[in-house]
Design the sequence.
């Protein structure tokens, strides 16, 4: 979660400090990211974790830091098996 939080903080329009990001807030609706930074976030996840996520997932089921972290953890666990 720390890498995701740091990435969202870095790419957010207002450069919101990582500690101030609400892990339960909708990433787009809260203004943490926009469509351009969402693409950057997905690219960073792919580079760091070798996991490809669909852009539409950020609007739906993976719309919070908590949900993203859970998905990354699940996929990392599946890859290790």
Sequence:
């Amino acid at each position: 979660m720390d890498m995701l939080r740091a990435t969202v903080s870095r790419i957010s329009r207002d450069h919101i400090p990582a500690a101030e990001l609400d892990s339960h807030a909708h990433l787009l609706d809260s203004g943490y990211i926009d469509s351009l930074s969402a693409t950057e976030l997905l690219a960073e996840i792919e580079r760091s974790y070798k996991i490809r996520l669909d852009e539409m997932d950020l609007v739906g089921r993976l719309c919070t830091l908590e949900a993203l972290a859970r998905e990354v953890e699940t996929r990392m666990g599946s890859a290790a098996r």
Q: What stands out?
A: The chain has a mean pLDDT of 92.
